Each structure stands twice: as structure tokens, then as C-alpha cells.
Amino acid sequence: MDLKIVSSAEELQQAFGVRILVYIGEQACPWAEEFDGNDFAATQILGTVDGEPVATARIRWFQDFAKLERLSIRPEWRGGGNGHRLLQYLMEICRKKGFRRLYLHAQMRLASFYRGYGFEIVGQPFGFSDHDYLEMACNLAESEDRLTLEHGPMVLNRPEGAWESVGVLEASLDRMEVPLSA
Ligand SMILES: CC(C)(COP(=O)(O)OP(=O)(O)OC[C@H]1O[C@@H](n2cnc3c(N)ncnc32)[C@H](O)[C@@H]1OP(=O)(O)O)[C@@H](O)C(=O)NCCC(=O)NCCS
């Protein structure tokens, strides 16, 4: 499965398609509760297999923690480790962004899955959209390669999640005969 941060309207449609199948289709979540007003405040993740959208999740960012939401794998692609891959990818993005605390709402049957990644129950069980949930949180070790101002403007300009590749704005420097700063 290839995982990436959504960077186009088509990819967003694909991510939403997975959520419609999984939450609205399988789990009978009403539309307005699934698309709860937070989708344009979130970093959206898409997983594909041979170009077919099969997985998604989103991350919302708070000052003291990142919140992992809407993890979903289409049923035909479950049970082979894609859930592990998706969660590891989300945690890696958070680590790279320098976050040290992660938080999520776990459907109860999945508590041991999240526990395996260091999440612990915080607060009391609660419910919404016809499911019982546990608040879970985990601490991340400080990441040596988290993004900082030391990376400089061009690395920080790169598309989210593609911080290791030369970005389109770096290529734009080729057009300058005289550097703007000169
Ligand atoms: C949760 C989900 C993303 C996991 O995807 P997956 O491809 O099945 O996951 P994996 O094959 O990588 O397995 C990951 C772990 O999930 C757990 N798991 C998956 N389905 C489970 C189920 N129905 N009940 C209990 N545990 C389950 C297992 O602990 C497994 O760990 P193991 O490898 O040690 O056995 C997927 O089942 C899904 O999309 N479910 C519907 C949406 C949902 O409920 N999302 C979670 C909201 S908190």
C-alpha cells in the first residue's frame, strides 16, 4: 500500500470515498456525523494499492497534541497489516512535525491494537454515533529529524509529507539569473 498526504481534489475525493464505504456504508454513520465540519482543518491521508484507493485517515493539530481520526481500510484490504502500516505512517508524520503527544478515540474492540503502539487509556469511556469509545493517548520520543527552522526555507516550502524530495519551488530558482536577495 502506498501512503501519502492528500494534495489534490481528486485524492480528497478518493479519501472521502473510502470513508463513505467504511463508516457510512458499513458502520451506518449518518453523513453529517461522518463529515463533521473538521475535514478542511485536517491533514488528510490516502492509501492506494495499484492506484485503487483503499485506506484513509486524518490528523488534526492542536498546540499540545495531534489527534488521529477516521482510520479506515476498505474491507477487502483488511487483515494483512494495512492497519498497522496506516497507523505507523500517521505516527511518523506526527513525529516529523515534532509532536510529542498523540491522542485518539478508539472503538473499544481496537484498544489492544493501539496499546501495541504505546497508547494508554485516558479519561472515561464515552459514546457517539452509536459506538463506544475510549480516549487513548501516547507520548512520542523527541525526534532527531523533526522539522525545525534549521531546515531552512526551501525544505519548509516542500509539500507536506514530501520533505525528503526537492520541491517545485526549489526548481523555480532555475528561472532566476540574479538571485532576488542580491
Ligand atoms: C481498524 C482497521 C483500520 C484495521 O485495519 P486492518 O487492515 O484490518 O489492520 P491489520 O491487518 O493491520 O491489523 C491491525 C490490528 O487490528 C486489530 N483488529 C483489526 N480488526 C479488528 C477487529 N474487528 N477486532 C479486534 N481487533 C481488530 C488487530 O489487533 C490487528 O492486530 P494484529 O496484527 O496483532 O492481529 C480496519 O479494520 C477498519 O478500517 N475498520 C473499520 C473502521 C474502524 O472501525 N476504524 C477504527 C476506528 S477507532
TrEMBL record:
SUPFAM superfamilies per the UniProt record, alphabetical: Acyl-CoA N-acyltransferases (Nat) (SSF55729)
The entry's keywords: Acyltransferase, Transferase
UniProt cross-references to InterPro entries, sorted A to Z: Acyl_CoA_acyltransferase, Bact_Acetyltransf, GNAT_dom
PROSITE patterns (UniProt xref): GNAT
A Pfam match: Acetyltransf_1
Keyword Transcription regulation: no
Residues of the N-acetyltransferase domain: 1-141
Kinase as UniProt keyword: no
PANTHER family: AMINOALKYLPHOSPHONATE N-ACETYLTRANSFERASE-RELATED-RELATED (PTHR43877)
Annotated protein name in UniProt: GNAT family N-acetyltransferase
Record organism: Lacibacterium aquatile
